[in-house]
Amino acid sequence: MGHVTFATPLALLGLAALIPLALVFRRADRARRHALAVFGPLSVQSPASSLPRDRGTRLAHGLALACVALCVIALARPQLGTTSQLRRRTSGDILFALDLSRSMGAADVQPSRLDAAKRAAADIARAFPDDRVGLIVFGGSGFLQLPPTLDHSTFRSFLDAAATADIPDPSTNFEALAGLVTATLARSDAAPYSAVVMLSDGEDVEGKLEQAINLLISAHARTFAVGIGTPAGAVVTDRDARGTATPHLDWAGREVTSKLDEQNLRDIARRTGGDYAWWDGDASVEPIISELAQLQRRAVASTTHGPPADRFQWPLALACVLLVAYPLAARPRPVGPS
After folding, report:
1. Domain residue limits at 324
2. 167, 137 in Cβ contact below 8 A?
3. Do 326 and 260 sit in the same domain of this protein?
């Protein structure tokens, strides 16, 4: 079932108010008993009046403290479990391939190439709310992060969380990517209904581009490429354990500059039947969106998961019960043996 989380955990600081409130109750109880003792013996007072028992007073104070605590917990919005729903759609599959190589940290596109690539992917996915979307991340190697799903909120979570540190080999290898795409489409038997959207700066420093293209063609993987970066390029940076950025140096101690290689991306897109676009803002991917709209589609079903379910009603309902019980516990009764 999962564990309890809080949407506004800072509200739990209000529980600290229980300590001074408990001290106030304790002091008031002592003052009450002292006043009764000064007034006269309880054995004389009890036949003429009803007074609260010590046990009842302590119970009432406990109920009041518990009621306050439950209200604070309700304000913190406890969440437990998620809502899920089986969705059926006439859908195609759009498999996004996100480049996480070291060069994607370059800042010739602000705030970085990787951030621009994520924005481009989000724009394209948003245009197809009824299509399944999946995510592959790659550098020197590749990983299927999310198989195609109708759950776009989960896709966006994986997309937002992607970072260059996720790939152990920070280089770029399109051949490794093509092999993973081929395996993914073969596993899902969805090639006729699928398209690949590659988001990269186009630099392939390890693989064999021709072999990569041949693999994509054999898998019938129609590939669309979005070029991220500029022809002028920018210095590639590394980050140390404290997050400080320093220029990446080659074997000779020279700063490495990464430039957008549009030719590689154009070749991949043209020969696999896709299209190429250079990222220059949201409007720049409209041609790719128009092409993807022509994708073949078929009936699919997928389970989607909503946001965590709010459970503030539970502590609030219990607080109401304690609020009703409070006057019953605090009601004066004839004093007898406690």
Report:
1. 5-77+312-334
2. yes
3. no
Give 103's contacts (C-beta < 8 A, 6+ positions apart): 113, 172, 201, 203, 229, 236, 258
Same domain membership, residue 256 and residue 240: yes
Structural domain total, the chain:
2
Helices (H), 189-312: 209-218, 262-272, 286-292
User: Model-level pTM?
Assistant: 0.66
Q: Are residues 15 and 148 in the same domain?
A: no
CATH number of the domain enclosing 235: 3.40.50.410
**Same domain membership, residue 163 and residue 57:** no
Q: Tens digit of pLDDT per residue, the chain (338 long)?
A: 557 888 888 888 888 888 888 888 888 878 777 776 666 565 555 555 555 666 777 788 888 889 999 999 989 888 886 666 666 667 889 999 999 998 898 888 989 999 999 999 999 999 999 899 999 999 888 899 999 888 898 999 999 999 988 888 778 889 999 999 998 887 766 667 899 999 999 887 666 889 999 999 998 899 999 999 999 888 877 766 666 667 667 666 777 788 999 999 999 999 999 999 999 999 999 999 999 999 888 877 666 666 677 888 888 999 899 888 877 776 665 544 44
Question: Helix, strand or coil for residue 99?
Answer: strand
Q: Are residues 182 and 248 in the same domain?
A: yes
